[in-house]
Each structure stands twice: as structure tokens, then as C-alpha cells.
Amino acid sequence: MSYSTAQIRNVALVGHPGAGKTTLFEALLHAGGAIQTAGTVERGNTVSDFDPIEKQRGHSIDAAIASIDHAAAGQQLVHVNLIDTPGYPDFRGPTLSALAAVETVAIVVDAASGVEYGTRRMMERARERNLCRVVVVNKIDHEGVDCARVLEELREQFGPEVLPLNLPADGGKRVVDCFGQSQGESDLGPVADWHQKIIDQVVEINETVMDHYLDLGEGGLSGQELHDAFEQCLREGHLLPVCFVSARGGVGVKELLGIAERLFPHPGEANAPAFVRGAGAQAQPVEARPDPDAHVIADVFRIVNDPFVGKLGIFRVYQGTVRKDSQLFVDDGRKPFKVAHLFKLKGKEHVEVAQAVPGDIAAVAKVEDLHFDAVLHDSHDEDQIHLAPLDFPRPMFGLAVEAASKGQEQKLSTALHKLAEEDPCFRVEHEAETNEVVVRGLSDLHLRINLDRLKDRHGVEVATRPPRIAYRETVSAKAEGHHRHKKQTGGAGQFGEVFLRIEPLPRGQGFEFVDEVKGGTIPGQFLPAVEKGVRQVLHGGAIAGYPMQDVRVIVYDGKHHPVDSKEVAFVAAGKKAFLEAVAKARPQVLEPIVDLDVAAPEQNMGDISGGLAGKRARINGTDAAKGGEIVIKAQVPLSELEGYAAELKSITAGRGRYSLDFSHYEPVPSQVQQRLVDAYKPRAEED
Q1: 439-494 pLDDT per residue, tens
Q2: Which residues, in sequence order, are CB contacts of 394 under 8 Å at separation 6+?
Q3: Alpha carbon distance 351, 47 (integer Å)
Q4: How far apart are CA 565 and CA 568, in angstroms?
Q5: Can you list the positions of beta strands (E) in 307-358?
Q6: What is the pTM of this model?
């Protein structure tokens, strides 16, 4: 079925766990004619939750995509790409990845629970990405629901720009339009009152529309003027519209689909994607135009290793047209690949198509070079172009893993690599100091799900244990160091002498190497050798065996010998001079501090807070959730959280959960540092 960019709408459903995103996804697909019958989470037959683990647990773990081709009476066809995303913070990777592929984010809110922690988090994430935001209040027909209170809470939390496009009526059994009409009654009072508020909000964004409105009244505004002003309000965050639905009961679902078709922006109207050419300070903004005849620019926002079709790269086209049998480059690759098959997705199904126009979402299979955030293009004019990176949380929860059976080491490595390709918040690291393979995720649940997939999908069972904590070393004062390296063994000798200063850098600044040598006392060709010696200490640590950071090294003097000076001599001299300086510079061991969010029943708050206090935690506050639940926010040393999953499960009878985000590094207490230093037994090294 053929369609243009102007006929496309890309919408991600996000929100707090349990808000009903998957049920709404099913209801919209059914209302748009994409499926015959809406499935349910309880029966495990939904389009989006097709993974066996999702069916078993009853909630989404990955983002799922499906499309609707729908034409209202007398209207042109609209192609809606819907993405259903996980609500649990443990699975934020797929949710945040979806934000790179859409213009509109629909934040789904449970009418019984109102604004929750996940609501605020996703509202902020969408605002940061400059995306159009819409609130969908779900479950309006549930007993005891107070939609007026929910709307008031939304306006209190997110501002007066929160205004309804429709209103519940007859106790949530139907909805009435309050944007396109001004007559009638609703559960929230006269339709005319809310109609006036939203019209006033929409017309004031555009001077021309405002003038027409003041001169001629609402009747003097054309439909196109109202649409353009509404779309501008969404783009600029001047309006945050609210739609009321009951996904399970079907109330307001067709109306929501109609609103998406008529009022949500198409890819040519929304805020331009943030593409840049180059990296770092030299990066320059690049405009990707939704022109079907221009060079192709597409971004891979999801990787799926499908057991039947192989590696699947799901991408959003920003410019140009991707056609079957065309050739594309991956990033700055020299060799193109052929698009042998081009797919649209419908949950786990793959439907082959002939082309994907700007704004569309499609997939290619069996291209091994594909990776998350890869840019696909058809001309070397687009080399070095990439989308501004998403700000993913840093995975801090770790487990050291090894194959439970001998001979499966390579199979384990391959399987872990595939899992890491699919989830940007799941990482696999090899710790050289301990020769451990460590997997890191956002929580204990996040890791357990991935280890289950290791077994179910790839047939690999692993043994796990807590990993070594990623401590770091630094210095807290300025100091100087000096070393003369001299060896004479009968033939040509070794000679190098280095004088250097060190000083601490602000936390997170890394390492700087500064050359202040005057008069050629250390010839230029030997300065890289001095830096190499310094970096050996940075990598292996000076006092406790952990990598060193946040230090500036200034080499200002030295001596050389015209015959005996060699690179190896200056490596050794630089290393020993740096170690001497570190010993004088009040060295410190730093530990990772994480932001911890614990969601649990309110009655367990005292036990949880007391337990955290014994872990050197700083509790920053609590966030009341509905249903008798609270979210405790704290900053805690990562080393104190070993075994916390079992502890929290015991305290809350299995109802508590938590997630981690890396916050910063800070010095460990003196007694902890002494213990780490005492435990470090560096191997003696021969000069």
C-alpha cells in the first residue's frame, strides 16, 4: 500500500507500569482494522507481548511495532506506526530507543492511579527530546474513577497548558469532543467551558490566526488554520492535550485514532531531528529533509536477533527513499550492502514491502554490520553523519558470569554479544584485572530476564557471582615526582630522567598530559614514551590496583643521553616519577555512587529507610504513588548493595522493586580505603 510522508504518523505509547499501554495498543490496532480481534495481556495473545517471557510475566519487556492503514469516511488514508514500550524502569533501554523514531509521545495514565513516577519520568524524557506530547487517560470506565481529579492533578503537575481534547461522559461510558464542538455536557461539566479554554490556548500561538479569531470569531477560522496552530502548539510545548479512553471497553479509542490522524504532526511538520556531522566540539548540525528524492539518511534504533530471519535492524527513514534491492552504506563503511528484503513489522510478523519513504519505519535482515544507532545512507556525501545520542542510564548492577558447562565459553560469548546488541542498557565487559566476564544492567530483574533469555533462546546456562566493584583512584593534592632510570649492562645502556608535577582535576574530567619541557632536555620523540609510562599507572592503579582518573600530569624537565636514551628508559622513568608524585599527592580511592529508586508498599517505608541508612545511603526524599505505594529516592555506594534484591524481597514479601542509575564517584571512607590498600598485593616488576 503506497502513502507519502504527509500521511504518516509515528506514535510511541509510554508511561508507568500497569497504565494499560499494551491493551491500548491492541485496541488501536483493532479500531484501525489492522487486527480482527484485540488480544489481552491475561491470555498472552497480544501483538506486542509475543516473547515467551513477556507472556509468562504479564508485562512488556521489549518495544514492539505495528502499523495501521486507516481512512476515515471521506478522508485520505493515514499510515500510523505505533510503538508499544515497556513501563518498568528496569527496561528503559527499549523505551528510550523508541523516542528516536517518533514525532509524538503518548503518555498513558491510569485514571484510577493518576500521575505516577513513570508518568513524570517519561514526560521529562519526551520534553528533553523536543517531541510532541499527548496524555492519554485510560480506564475511565472503571468503578470509582474521578476523571476531574486526574485532570486537575495533570494540570498541577505539568502546567495550565494541559487541556482536554475530549471529555468523559455518562460515567466514562462515552467521550465527547470539546475541541471541534462547544455543545453538550460531560462528567467534567459543560463542554463549552473546556472548548473555550483550548481554543484560546491554540489560537494565541500564531499571530495571524489570533488576528482572524479576534476579528471574525471562531467561525471565521478555517480548518487548516486551526490544524496548523494546533500542530505548532504541540511542537513548541504550548499545548499538552489530554484524551480520555477505556482501552479495554473500547470507549474513546476510535476517537483517539481520529485525533492522531487529523491533529498529530506528520514527519515533515514535527521538530527536525538532531543530526550532526563529525564528533565532539567539531560536530556541525546537519539538516535531514523529508525529501523522497534526496540521498537516503536512516537511523537504526533497534536490533533484534530473530531465530528465523537472523539479525534484524529496525530503522526510521529521515531522508530519501529506501527501496528493495537498493544499496546502502552502514556509517562510514566502504562496502555497501544490498537491501535484499525490506520489511514492515507487525509484532513478531514481518511483512515484505517495496519501499520506505521519509518518516517511515522499516527493517532489513541478515546484515551483520548493523548495530544500534547506525546511520544508513546511499552516498558517501553522508559519511560521518549521526543522530545526536540518546542519554541512556548507565547500567550499574553487575554479575560476573561463566559458562556452567565446559566447552560452552565461545557459545556464551556469542550469545551475550547478541543480547547486548538488542538492549543499549545491557553491557558485557571483560575485567582484565580479575579475568571476569561481567554483565551489567539496570537492576537485578533486568539481569535475570537476560540470563533467562541466555538459557531459553541460546541454550547456555551460566554460573554467577558478585563482580568486583569498579573502584577508581585519584589524587587530592598537587605534588612533584622525579626518577632517573639508568642501566648499564656492558653494551649500550638505558638512560632517561623525568621531572613532573601532578594536580587533581575536577571529578569526571579524566586525564590530561601536558608538555612543558624547555630546551629539549627531553627530546620530542621520547615524550610519548613518558606518557606511555604514566598511562601504565593510570590503567593498573597506584595504591589499590584500580584505574586512576581526574589527574593532570605536567612534564617540565628531564635529561637524556645521546647514545643510551631509548624509549623503554623514558617509559620506566615516567612511570616511576608518576608513582612517586602520586604517593605525595594524598591519593584516594573513589567508589561509584548510584541513584537508587525503591518502589514498595507504604507500610514498608520504615524498614526500607532503616536498612538503607545502614548502607551509608543518603535518602533524598519519597514520592507518593497511588495504590498505597511509595518510591524512596536515595544515593548509595554501589558496594553496599550486594544482596539487596533478596533483602528487599524479604522486607516487602516480594512486592518491592528497585532500579539504579550511575550518579558520580566520591572518596571512600578512610577505613574502607585502608582495607582496599591492604588487600592489594601488586606483583613486583623488574625495571
Answers
A1: 998 888 889 999 999 988 888 999 998 888 889 999 999 999 999 999 877 667 88
A2: 661, 662
A3: 14
A4: 8
A5: 310-319, 322-323, 327-330, 337-338, 342-346, 349-352, 355-356
A6: 0.80
